[in-house]
Specification:
With about 230 residues, the protein is α+β, with helices and mostly antiparallel strands. About 15% of the residues lie in helices and about 35% in strands. An eight-stranded antiparallel barrel has the order 1-3-4-5-6-7-8-9. The longest helix has 16 residues, at about 5-20. Keywords: Signal.
């Protein structure tokens, strides 16, 4: 009987080993560069994509964020700033609250690879030049169905999100995309926190994203609260 705690400890340690996070170096590997053109990913003709799963959870006042989507709109003349709509549902004790945000995404190249030719990341803000932006780096895109993003301000830069476009979201995650997510973000199921469900499409309306409305300057005394957090869901 004394051996039981010992074997349990071995089992627990094995589980921890399996639950280790993915390899961040993939983000800058030259052999993956052809799959990291973020402008090409944003120019997908299927304009809406759904966050299928991610490595972390998001809550507001105890309510879980589900049915997260992004719908890409027009871009500026330079072609590096995109209007898009971000939406999600807050589920709290059976009650649902729909949230929609008009945002801007400005693409750029990360600095770790001077020889990189294409933009591979974006900063998302509530308005042009907004100070509370959030950075995302494209790990992998098949430019059709699936995109994997690194959330640079979450989990010390190790957080990930996997998106499936509208025409693919009700199908299994493409094998290559799932494999890359596992390598870059973690293979254990604990790194795949489900965000999408089959009822999500029924909770949103097909609308074209609009220009973000003008915002008043932030007060010098303003602090980061639920309403002033960087864009993200």
């Amino acid at each position: 009987m004394k051996l039981l705690p010992f074997f349990f400890s071995l089992y627990f340690l094995a589980m921890l080993a399996d639950a280790k996070p993915g390899e961040i170096r993939i983000d800058e590997e030259k052999k993956y560069e052809e799959y990291q053109d973020i402008k090409k990913a944003l120019d997908n003709t299927d304009r809406r994509s759904w966050m299928y799963y991610r490595t972390y959870s998001r809550h507001t006042n105890g309510g879980e964020h589900i049915c997260v989507y992004a719908r890409v709109g027009e871009k500026n003349e330079e072609g590096n700033t995109y209007n898009f709509e971000q939406g999600y549902t807050i589920l709290n004790e059976g009650e649902k609250k729909e949230v929609k945000l008009a945002l801007l995404a400005t693409t750029y190249k990360t600095e770790n690879r001077p020889d990189r030719k294409k933009h591979n990341a974006m900063k998302v803000t509530k308005k042009s030049g907004g100070s509370n932006g959030k950075g995302y780096q494209l790990i992998y895109s098949d430019y059709g169905c699936c995109d994997v993003l690194r959330v640079l301000e979450e989990e010390r830069g190790a957080a990930c999100e996997l998106y499936l476009h509208d025409n693919c979201v009700d199908q299994p995650v493409p094998k290559t995309c799932a494999h890359l997510y596992g390598n870059a973000c973690g293979t254990d199921d604990s790194f795949k926190k489900q965000v999408y469900n089959k009822n999500c499409k029924n909770t949103t309306e097909e609308e074209t994203p609009k220009e973000p409305p003008p915002e008043a300057p932030e007060s010098p005394k303003e602090t980061t609260t639920t309403s002033t957090l960087p864009p993200g869901c």
